[in-house]
Amino acid sequence: MKPSKVAREQQIAVFGESGSGKTVLLSSFYGAAQQPAFVQDSMYKITADDTAQRNRLHQNFLGMRNSGVAPESTRFAATRYVFSITRRPMTGRKGKNPAAEELRLVWHDYPGEWFEEDPSTAEELVRRGETFQTLIGSDVAVLLVDAQRLVDNTGEEERYLKALLTNYIAHVSKVRGELLPDGKRLARFPRVWLFGLSKADLLPEMDVTRFRDLVVEKAGQEMTLLHEELSAFVEEPEAFSLGEDFVLLSSAHFEPGKIDVDQQVGVKLMLPIAAMLPFSRYVRWAGAMRRSNKVAKELLDRSGPVLAFIATKVKLPGPLKLITVALPFLVDPLLDHSRDKLEDAYNTAKARHEFLTAVLLGFRLELKQAVDDKVLIESPK
Question: How far apart are CA 270 and CA 330, in angstroms?
Answer without folding.
Answer: 22
